[in-house]
Amino acid sequence: MLDLIEFGIFIVLLIVGFFAGTIVEKRHYASIRQRERQYADVLAFSVRFPPDRVTPQRAFLVHGTVVISSDYFKTFVAGLRNLFGGRVRTYETLMERARREALLRLKHDARRQGAKLVICVRFETTTISTGYAASIEVFAYGTALIPDRESAIAFGARSGVAA
Amino acid sequence: MLVSNLELVPGRRIVSHFGIVQGSTVRAKHVGKDIFAGLKNIVGGELKGYTELMQEARHEAVERMIAEAQSMGANAILNVRFATTSIAAGAAEILAYGSAVQLDGN
Which site among B29, B33, B47, B53 would you substitute to test the A interface, given the most A Cβ atoms closer than 10 Å to its Cβ? Predict the structure, then answer.
């Protein structure tokens, strides 16, 4: 009898996880797509050096972070996958959502401070917890560059180039 | 204090190097937040409490790194990197490190 109740709870959690998880994921993807269009003017690159190394520019660190959790259904499916190997699609979408979200937050941070270019973008992923409470953190950081108007003009005058 | 993960700052010259500076903090999870996170693990989605926790921890690590650089008389930290290590279940160390330098100009 007790086993039956336990099995019942497991099935209910699985169903709740599946439906709620699907809704949460769909909403998140919709929000990500919408904000990606919104932040399309903020450019982010992973290159190590700025395109223009000579003209003075204001540089500062910007970052974005998100901790995201898997749902009960995803974790169960991933557990099954562990038996046979192969692609774990349910976790692939989880990681993708986290990366895109972290990058969006980095872009938000950059725009908030008036920058439209971020270079040297790096990602860092941390496992917060495993097992049936699987959650991961993605942290994106980079350097935002803002052309420094005053020093650019001064530099132009110094080197004889029209600013 | 200029903090950047670039190796150079456009238009600025590095006058002197002070060596590596670092800042770190060890954080543990909050029981209340953990219960909420446990519920969230059924339906999935962002764990906002943990996002804030990590943000605060990184901010503190960076502040400590800046304090060390200031005590050396540096005006910039370049090539900044971050690292996270879980020490035990529920506790993590967040480390920020970089090179303290003196840049010309202001």
Answer: B47
